Amino acid sequence: MYRFILKRLLLTLPILLGVIVLVFSMINIVPGDPGSSILGSSATQEAIDELNHALGYDQPFPTRLMKYLGDILLRFDFGKSWQSNQPVMRSILQNFVYTFRFALMGTMLYALIGIPLGVLSAIRQYSLADNVMRVLAMMINAMPSFWFGLVAIFVFSLKLGLFPSNGIDTWKHYVLPVAVFGISGAGGLLRQTRTIMLESVRQDYIRTARAKGAPERRVIWGHAFRNVTLPLINTIGIGFGAVMGGTVLIENVFSLPGLGNLALSALRAKDVPLIMATTIFLAAIFCVIVLTVDIISALADPRVKARYIQ
Fold it and tell me: What domains sit in the chain, N to C, each tagged with a CATH number?
């Protein structure tokens, strides 16, 4: 198993290195310089040039890229924010807790909704329940998450007054954003679960189990569903990583602290070190999630066990 993990790690490192180089290159293509952004339009050109020299921005692009890579890889230093003059990793780690919490609860919710309903839709194919759930899944997929969030605020916060529309002071503040996360993702998971289950229940071993008189509950959950766990593990894991990087809309709608809102604020302020560090951090988190999903899938797959576990 250690060989499997090592192989995945060796594949992850070049991806992260490529992301760092790509993000750094794209940021440096954008017109502007840190001296003008930090000091403002009222500063003299001499002061701007002096600050750019102190930050090393007047050096050639390859030199700045190698220095940035050295700071990250050797000292884990992503620099300081141009606006607050504080280490950017401090702000990222403070906001990461909230994003991780929202993403985890939202992913758990859409798994609890999408998987059982997908299984039910598959075993009741072409029934009224199946048709209703398929229509609802398509409607949910067609609704943008930010629009769904605005509707939830209008109905449950402004009209009914059941839940607050912003902040994270109490447990009630988590209800609306987590519900929007979960319901928005449940439609796609429901449809995928239904498709995989339909293929599974048509296999020969399912007909054999039924012919031997096995209870229907055992046939569905003990035989058919076990065959779809690996694809669902990959889907939920990748979905969790996507939610981690795609929370900017929901966090902005509900005025929540998190990496999405932090990245948007940095973009508005043209805070390049914070933009780069946030992007690279999210890419690293996604790679870690994918690596974790691969390991879990390997532990659950007998074929991988037979190949890597001695």
Answer: 34-77 (no CATH), 91-308 (1.10.3720.10)
